[in-house]
Specification:
Layout lengths: L2 E4 L5 E6 L2 E4 L4 E6 L2 E3 L5 E9 L2 E4 L11
Parallel strand pairs: 1-7
Antiparallel strand pairs: 1-2, 2-3, 3-4, 4-5, 5-6, 6-7
Length: 69
């Protein structure tokens, strides 16, 4: 599943490519296994909601995983 990740406010905060989540600057931030988001160390951090096709939304509680600009 590839696509863009949006926070609960509708702002793009990341990109999914294969099984990895990248920040907008291109740095690998997390692993994605199904709908589960894991730190690179393997710790479960949250869940991703697949909304519409390639657009995925974060729950308000999962917004904390991505720093706002």
């Amino acid at each position: 599943m590839d696509g863009k990740i949006f926070n609960s406010k509708g702002v793009q905060v990341g990109v999914v490519t294969g099984g990895a989540i990248y920040g907008l600057k291109g740095h690998k931030l997390y692993e994605l296994k199904g709908a589960n988001i894991y730190k690179l160390s393997g710790e479960l951090m949250g869940h991703l909601n697949a909304s519409h096709g390639s657009q995925m939304r974060l729950d308000r509680s999962t917004d904390r995983l991505f720093l706002e600009k």
